[in-house]
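Researcher: I'm preparing a figure for a lab meeting and need a structural model of a single chain. I don't have an experimental structure, so a prediction will have to do for now. The sequence is pasted below. Please return the structure as tokens so I can convert it later.
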Amino acid sequence: MSSAPTTEITGLLRAWSGGDGAALERIVALVHPELRRIAERCLAHERGEHTLQATALVNEAYLRLTHKDRIDWQSRAHFYAVAAAEMRRVLVDHARSRAAAKRGGPLEKVPIESAAVYCTSRPEELVALDDALQQLAGWAPRAARVVEMLFFGGLTETEIAEVLGVSARTVKRDWSTARAWLHIQLGGGKT
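Model: Understood. Here is the structure written out token by token.
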């Protein structure tokens, strides 16, 4: 995660949610390098001619974050979790538009080993992963958030536990449950 002190980022996040616009500028300077690393890691798994670049992904996530109603930021990890969720939405929206443009028929199931690399070379796989995560969120919302923060945000189990207000052991159990369920949903196992 970011090299900036956790307390500094948390304080700025709270000031921003309290209406301090100048705090947002300072936050951007502090967290941009980490968000860019997350975006680059994600886009590294995309095809070479991908039209979405890391800077555009980060900028779109920022735009979405700044247009949200005020958020009661808990910590730096909470910010990265929310930013990761926004990056996921940007990537899925991009993939859905590409898949729709192809008009290539129904989406196919893929093994979790392929889909777990949250940014794939085929938009259909990312869309299938997103659909599966939405289904998972219907019956195990915390497990779905664990997957999102782990893969899209790059948060550690300890950071995820902090954001969710649970133990790291609970995060491990949620990840194990989610991984098994996604494996079946994405065609990696028999039902």
